[in-house]
Amino acid sequence: MTTICVDAMSSDGGPEVVQQGIAQALEEDSNLSVLVAGSSEYVTPFCERHEGAMPLISSEVIHMDEHPATAVRKKKDASIVRAARAVREGKAEGLFSAGSTGAVLTASTFIIGRIRGIKRPAIALPIPGPNGKRTIFLDMGANADVRPDMLVQFAQMGRAYSRIVTGTQNPTVGLLSNGSEGTKGSQLALEYHKALAEADCNFKGNAEGTDLLSGSFDVVVTDGFTGNVALKSVEGTAKFIVGALKDSIEGSPRLALGALMLKPALKKVASELSGDKYGGAILIGLKAPVLKGHGASSVDAVTAGTLHCAEIVRAHLVDEVTKTIQAHEAQDQ
Asked: Phi/psi of residue 286, each to 5°?
């Protein structure tokens, strides 16, 4: 039995959305149990109604507009803090939350802790490509300023995650830059390129923005500032296209019928770009898997996040990352 702790107070849609997602996950995975962190008002009756759900009562919530580090330090009984502590104490093997990214990152890093040798955890997401191809993209916002040695670790962690998600045994790595040539980019990008080229990580050179969805690389790495901007640009483009299509079909029954037929396919693409297929993005580099969902996570996204977190636990991602980092440390000595 795999136990995942889910922060029930984290969704913009309220605890009911998270609870419905947990209920679906329990129905789909008979080897799953869920530790539900949140207010007794919501958590206790839900757990009484659902076999496999166990209450973890908390009395506080960290809101999106609060300073993450201050809130985590002051609100000792917040749902995300209690959830992270439960993972550290071995009551759960992984964590899913749709709460404040900063609060999830802070609580998970300082309470669950980093894998020995990891300089900084990173946020990673499998993004879609042609013919079902998946590219692991990181960092997506955990670290705005990154040294070259940290980026090398991102590549190593991304490769470990890629092996689990895609089954690729020797994933290729690309560096997000403004041109495919190795001489392109800022001074820092050139330092990243040099460090990756010297590391044993199957580095194949620079990846342009168009390569993110092309499937040209198995893993694409960058600093968290650039990664977050790039991902939001992709998501914004997708929303614009959907909005433009809606505007174009107004007043045309023929186009409306075509759009209705395309709706399931468009919904699937939008879900994959948003990360809902996996429930969100993984905070990789910690001693246990932590999945961060969108604040506006749907019921299906919460279900996917809970199930994917259990999948990562069973695939021993933490052990895989640990072995990878230790092997590279041994080479450097």
From this structure: -95, 170
Structure tokens at 102: 């900063």
Strands 281-284 and 122-128: antiparallel
160 three-class SS: helix
99 touches 123 (CB < 8 A): no
Which of the 8 DSSP states describes residue 115? P
DSSP string, 172-214: -EEEE-SSSSTT-S-HHHHHHHHHHHHSSS-EEEEE-GGGTTT
- Domain ranges for the chain: 2-118+285-332, 123-274
Q: How far is CA 120 from CA 151, 240, 328, in A?
A: 9, 34, 16
How far apart are alpha carbons 245 and 242 in whole angstroms?
5
State the DSSP code for 217: -
Would you say the CATH fold of 123-274 matches that of 2-118+285-332?
A: yes
Measured between alpha carbons, how far is 64 from 71 in angstroms, rounded to an integer? 10
Identity of residue 105? L
C-alpha 305/C-alpha 142 separation (Å) is 19
CATH number of 2-118+285-332: 3.40.718.10
pTM above 0.85, yes or no: yes
Give pLDDT tens digits along the chain (333 positions).
999 999 999 877 888 999 999 999 999 999 999 999 999 999 999 999 999 999 999 998 888 888 888 988 999 999 999 999 999 999 999 999 998 888 999 999 999 999 999 999 999 999 888 877 889 999 988 898 999 999 999 999 999 999 988 889 999 999 999 888 878 888 999 999 999 999 989 999 999 988 888 889 999 999 999 998 988 888 787 778 777 777 777 767 776 676 666 666 666 666 666 556 778 899 999 999 999 988 778 898 999 999 999 999 999 999 989 988 887 766 665
Correct CATH for 123-274 of 3.40.718.10, 3.90.1560.10, 3.30.930.10, 3.90.79.10: 3.40.718.10
